[in-house]
Amino acid sequence: MKKRELMVVGLLLASMSGYSALYTENFSSYGIGVQPTNTTAKLNVLIINGSGTTGSGNAAQLTDNSASTAAYLESNFAANEAGEYGAVSISFDIYNNQLASSAGNMTFGIGSYSNNATYTMNANATRYFNLEFASAAGTFVLRANGANLGSATYNLGASNHIEVFVNDSETAGVGYIGGTLGTNSFAVYVNNSLVGVGVKGLGASALSAGESDGLGRFGFYSASTSINQFTVDNIVVNNLIPEPASIGLLLIGGVTVLFLRRRNR
Ligand SMILES: [Ca+2]
Ligand SMILES: [Ca+2]
After folding, report:
1. For residue 8, is pLDDT > 60?
2. What residues have CB less than 8 Å from 64, skipping those under 6 apart?
3. Which residues surround ligand 1, an ion (CB under 5 A)?
């Protein structure tokens, strides 16, 4: 294959594998000890050096050291309610600092867009899908629309790479690393191993309370009654449904390769 063809094929593969990113944050642009600003809501979050915990470089640390206050870090990835998404993947690294007094959960949730500048991932009504990381044990519960759909394990004393795929569509499956994700379904990977896949489509009660495209916000939330400290890093939210523009790009790429091949014969 000629160099030009290789370049086109490279671009083609890059656009095929790279879903369009809706939100990315590795906290490297912040100084140590400050609060991150690329968020919609936060409390008790500071930038730390994550070396030795979540990996290398800066990370965000949520410290809930009181049974009467909360800690949270939440961000919209949709620009507004009308711009919510039907299927997304969210990946992040998480480390449990295991305070001696750790109690309760750090909940990672996905819900709809909200301009609320405080937490929204505190209730089943506002988180359509969530993981509840037990702070005193290496386990977490998978939940969709409030229903407990099982639990899985995560590493204590080491960083965990979590990858979540959620399809909120009522009508169409969506491609993901495991094949096709059905309607109103999710899949969860911990350190690149599938730990849970589930469907929450009980009649009209879909993953997103009947909405087909209701995903707009993610967050980490520790309840006021909980006590724990978790470090998170490398948050990436991708749109699992290719934009019309990238479908066009794929077609153009394919046609270009064919053209170059014919011309180089
Ligand atoms: Ca980082
Ligand atoms: Ca608390």
Report:
1. no
2. 44, 70, 71, 106, 222, 226, 227, 228, 229
3. 26-27, 57-58, 233
Q: Which ligand is nearest to the CA of 235?
A: 1
For residue 198, report the distance from its CA to the centre of ligand 1, in Å. 30
Distance between first and last Cα of the chain: 11
* Lowest-confidence pick of 93-102, 117-126, 131-140, 209-218: 209-218
Q: Pick the more confident residue, 83 or 202.
A: 83
- In the predicted model, what is the mean pLDDT of residues 192-199? 87
Q: Distance, CA 34 to ligand 1 centroid (Å)? A: 14
Burial label, 262 (beta-carbon count in 10 A; 0-12, 13-18, 19+): exposed
What is the distance between the alpha carbons of residues 91 and 2, in angstroms, rounded to a whole number? 36
| pLDDT for position 237 | 97
Which residue from 122, 91, 114, 108 is spatially nearest to 23, judged by alpha carbons? 91
Q: How many CB atoms lie within 10 A of CB 219?
A: 26
9 CA → ligand 2 middle, Å: 51
Give Cα 90 to chain centroid, integer Å. 2
Count Cβ atoms within 10 A of the Cβ of residue 181 and give its class: 0-12 exposed, 13-18 middle, 19 or more buried: buried
Question: Rounded to whole angstroms, what are the CA distances from 115 to 76, 92, 120, 171, 235?
Answer: 8, 23, 10, 28, 20
**R_g (Cα) of the chain, nearest Å:** 20
